[in-house]
Design brief:
9 strands; two-stranded antiparallel ribbon; Fructose Permease; 6 helices; globular; seven-stranded mixed beta sheet; alpha/beta; single chain
């Protein structure tokens, strides 16, 4: 499958994604799916500039992103998909995007959020959304960098 990495990371494109994941996976394109980012022309430009030269960056809202990812999933081109929150990936799954694994890469701490692992915290709604992804057959795991061993979300979710 060409969707080599589907990652939730509230920072979207940053050093770990660019330096680590792109190289480790041989990805040739980054697709960001986030409604707010898709509406923000300045942020779209900044994210495009953050990627290495020659790596195209696409930014889509959820509806357009679902259609684009369904198309890309059927091609051999290795793709990294980035979203800020579980809700986005859940919507993509409901729209028919074939997501086998979701990587939790960065979900910041804050009021009402429970720490799952190092830099990963989740609200009760996000925990429910991650559980729903798993019920749909998508494996959810934490793998901060490509060299780390994946940690199953289920092992950190105290409600299971």
């Amino acid at each position: 499958m060409s969707l080599r990495l589907v990652r939730i990371d509230d920072r979207l494109i940053h050093g770990q994604v660019v330096a680590g994941w792109l190289r480790a996976l041989g990805a040739q394109r980054i697709v960001i799916v986030d409604d707010a980012t898709a509406r923000d022309e300045f942020l779209r430009e900044v994210l495009t500039l953050a990627a290495p030269q020659g790596v195209p960056v696409e930014v889509h809202g959820v509806a357009d992103g679902a259609a684009r990812l369904i198309t890309l999933a059927g091609t051999p081109e290795p793709i990294i998909v980035l979203a800020r929150m579980p809700r986005t990936l859940l919507a993509l799954r409901h729209a028919g995007v074939p997501i086998e694994v979701v990587d939790l890469g960065g979900m910041g701490a804050g009021p009402g959020r429970r720490r799952l692992h190092k830099t990963i915290s989740a609200s009760p709604d996000e925990l429910r959304e991650l559980r729903e992804l798993e019920q749909m057959g998508t494996r959810v795991e934490i793998q901060i960098v490509a060299d780390d061993r994946p940690i199953p979300f289920r092992s950190l979710d105290q409600s299971n």
